[in-house]
Amino acid sequence: VILLEVPWEQPDSSHFGGGMVWDDEGNLYLSLGDGTSYSDYESIHYLNDEDSTEVYDAARSAGNTNDLRGSILRINPQPDGSYTIPEGNLFTEGTPDTRPEIYVMGTRNPWRLSIDSQNGNLHWGDVGPDAGEDSEEYGAKGYDELNVAREAGNFGWPFAFGGRPYTQYDYETRTYGDLHDLQAPINTSPNNTGLRELPPVEQPLVAYPYGIAEDWPILSSGSRSVVGGPVFRRSDFTDDAPRVFPEYYEGKWLVTDYVRNWIMVITMNEDRTEALDIERLLPWESISHKHPLDMNFGPTGDLYLVEYGIGGQGRISKYVFNDGNRAPIARAGADRTSGAVPLDLQLSSDGTIDYDGDELQYDWVVSPAAGGETQRFTQANPDITLEEAGRYQIELTVTDPEGETGSDSFEIVAGNERPEVNIEIIRGNRSFYFPDTTIEYEVQVSDHEDGSLSDGGISPERVSMTAEYIPSGLTPSNLTELQDEGAIDAGASLRHVQARVLINEYNCSICHEVTSALIGPSFTEMAERYEEDESAPEELSQSIIEGSTGKWGDVEMPPQPMISETDARLITDYILSLNLPDVELRRLPLEGSYTTEGHDLVVIENQGDNEDRLVRYFDVPYEMGSYVFHAHYTDDGSSEVEGIALSGEDLVLLRYPLFGPEEADIFSEEGITFTPSIARHPGFIVSGPMSYIGFEQIDLTGINQIDIGAQTRHYNWSHFIGTTHEVRLGSPDGPLVGEPHEQIPPDNTTAEIDASGVNGVHDVYIVFRNPDADSEDALLAVWGIEFKQ
To answer: What is the pTM of this model?
Structure first.
């Protein structure tokens, strides 16, 4: 049953809002964005654009008393599918040129509503416009708002935001004049269908810009995307709820920011009109939130956080309040996991931790899988000997003085030693590939029982050596995850493994299965339809990103704008391959040379902001893919342990030598914020006196220059104060590479660091320093790091 319909203009409208909550009287609150598209890159034209259509005019929606958009509605749904209007909404039912459903008007992109159960106040976050500085012509810079409505009201947009007015706009002369009167704003838009004289503008509880908020510097600086969250009330939980937050949090509002990755706690005055204090829920260094989208308490008192993650790696986290002892966390390992008998091992509890600092008791249990005598050890890192061949289960349990425990386990194979496989790069770089460059390699294999390649004990025909180009690119962590999942088989293509990961990440399987039709067609049906269509790769990729309707019936396939062009082509490549024979990689000789290619970059037209920023900023001519070299050998087992053959492998990953900063392996605990949407805006913001990112085990052989692409001024973002770039080896304070590069606003140059004097494999740190900066000052936006020959 359709309860309510909201006007929406496509394809240009944006700012969807999105939030629903019930109050104790059965009223439903629904937040709607203003449905307006802005030229955000044009300094601060908030209200209109000289050549725009109505979709650029927020006064037609959020500033319109006769339009549901840009508002928070309050209605009371009825059992028959209709609804009634509660008393106390902004406009009395029957008032000409108004919509009685409106409870709050003048919002831009409101979401994550919550109700204070004690007083019925409505709370929400509202994402504001882009602009880094105030303007004499247009008015205030951009702010995000955290709002509390104790009763119905007008919160100002597009005539004010963050409690600051914008200048009035003359639609006939297309000029700006005096500031709007917050006590009596006037909507003169020709697109306005509602009242001309509007209710007075309410003040936000908290407002903060891209730069440091003078009132609340704890909110930091950089990109903003306020979310909101719940108000804590002890009375919302049963008396026997086991883990309710303490009385300290009574009446406080917990809020988040999607980009800045914090959870803050706001203390308000008694009438809830003023923020008295803002503090972090957790110390900055204790936890890393990953782009929070929603947050609420569960019935046990635990706090749940929905996180978008990075690159689609979303999660739901649970935060448990613990006012007493914390259980230890066990980590079990050994210096080797296989070998001939008698097998001498040192078991290791390295990584085991007790956050209370308690002295722990250790209990190791070594159990033969085939049955037999069990051994126990109580040292933290005992030396043991396994006399009998077979599989063993090793389990570690640690116990603190109050009896709380933690456990971990792994398996050992005694009687057969895992073969050692190594791909040695004799000439060339072991981290990067450069198009049309030849590398020389040699594969070495040795096995305790079988012998080696060099002594003839292992036949070359038993060793698989392949090379494959992966268009989407892979990171070392991607490759490790695929290994851990057992997804890498000798001689089998990895090309589509990553595509299947992406399909899961982006929830494509909700609408499509490989062989069965769901909401949309199966992947095999798509492959059959487009088998002879040369335009299929581009057409399908575009449909994935933009969505489509009518190609497979009337069902609308939703757009996936977060998917980059490269990833869309990878998914398309996989789909189209389903109607082709399985690919078996060509085996390479175990010693020889291999020439890498430059794969031309295919750009999907009309992608706008979805264009990869690295491609745009660095003028990349090729796909930023990766080559994977894979050597694999499975031994003959051992006479001492029948039926247990072990495999050894080595993988060499050669990546395109240009990284987004969010691909780093190491981040400083403070001073780094970024969004997961790496294809859109330069959202990687560096702040504070000193911060850094690090890339592990980078081969600098043949690398003569490291370029750091960064900006201190980008369109509307003008609050950056600049930094000095350093490249260091091994640690943020390690040996300096080349000379530091100072980048002070307004400067959008690339820092070029001379690396010609360095060779070998190192952890490479990019360090950003500004000793004059406060901890919350934003220094610059980083685009990418390029390693050049």
So the answer is: 0.68
